[in-house]
Amino acid sequence: MPSDRSQRPETRAVHAGRDASRSLSPAIWSSTTWSYAGLEQGEAHTRTLHGTGYYSRWGNPTTDAFERAIAEMEGAESALAFGSGMGAIATTVLALCGTGSHVVAQSSCYGGTHAFLAGPCARLGIEVTWVDGARPGAFAEAVRPGRTMLVMAESPSNPRTQIVDLAALGAIRGPYTLVDSTLATPLGQRPHDFGVSLVLHSATKGIAGLNDATLGVVSGDRELIDAIWSYSVLHGATASPHDAAAALKGLRTLDVRLDRQCATAHRLAEWLESQPAVAAAWHPALASHPQHDLAVRQMRRLGSVLSMDLHGGREAASRLMSRLRLVRPAVTLGGPETLVSHSVSSTHGALGPEARDAALIGEGTLRISVGLEAFEDLRDDLARAMAD
């Protein structure tokens, strides 16, 4: 029972992915396996692409509802869910690339993405060229016609909120293009509208939104998603129906959560820019952000995540984190609690100094995922922590 595509995105988020059962809460199909009538029907299930009602590694009705909701929110023909955001990244890359393939990737990206491309992909003979995603033309210039299979961007990037020109990325012809849109969510931007082939989310973060589900998802044209599905049943990074149901529930409140979180993140970033302890702050809503104008043009909301560099490096970051009372140290983002993480020692801990420099993070870089608390309480907590 699809919602009306003429409706505004925030309305579609409430109704997308529902079926004809009239159940207001998503039904959770926890079964791993369904029986079938006989050999012929079993064989038909085995040969069906992205089907349900056979085996949950093939597909699950609850997971299917979540996939349909994300496809609708992103304006795509189809979507495929995974057991985590990294499951989505690893499966998508390995489904499209093999020994001798070439990938163009953004230097400023999540540490797990960088580690996967630089480690397992390199061992498998997949070559990666790293580029500055904010430099005009950088992605297109790095493409090797006939060899580049995938161009990967992350916008906004984790943790420095670097913004990629989605129209320029979508205009690249030949390889598939992919945007990790986790920090934006489907209500923040829609890369498919700019011609991007694949849009990926760690739905663990803002989409689910309550730190109670681990989930990844990728959307795109049906034929391409079916090709990735064909590999995914072998890779086995299967999404849990319980987590898919939690993410569907999270999607229903995403709009109101984002409104509050993005507004508070902007105010907090403006305040942090004025603090003596802060060397620099980054959030796409700041006029000082290098890609502020681009972000305003292509995003509906500018994000709930900000980052800052502290004078004093790691020692200053450690001191601040140990003094916080309200803001909690944790590695995730997008939930109702405001969280802080030290990138070098957590999300980007696997990167060497050169890769960290390319990712624009240093020993004093902290990422803040802004939750639903009052701005004044967050400001006061950070002010106490930064006080001499």
What does this structure look like?
It contains 15 helices and twelve strands. Helix 3 runs parallel beside helix 10, helix 4 crosses helix 9 and helix 13 crosses helix 15. The strands form two sheets. Strands 1-7-6-5-4-2-3 form a seven-stranded mixed β-sheet, with helices on both faces. It has two domains: 9-252, 3-Layer(aba) Sandwich (Aspartate Aminotransferase, domain 2); 254-386, Aspartate Aminotransferase, domain 1. The relative contact order is 0.13. The chain is 38% helix and 15% strand.
Short structural description:
The protein has 388 residues and is of the alpha/beta class.
Please give the structural blueprint.
Layout: H1 9-15, H2 39-47, H3 61-74, E1 78-82, H4 85-96, E2 102-106, H5 111-118, H6 120-123, E3 127-131, H7 138-142, E4 148-154, H8 166-170, E5 176-180, E6 198-202, E7 216-220, H9 222-235, H10 241-252, H11 254-273, E8 278-282, H12 292-298, E9 305-310, H13 313-323, E10 328-329, E11 339-342, H14 353-358, E12 365-369, H15 375-386
Parallel strand pairs: 2-3, 2-4, 4-5, 5-6, 10-11
Antiparallel strand pairs: 1-7, 6-7, 8-9, 9-12, 11-12
Helix pairs in contact: 3-10, 4-9, 13-15
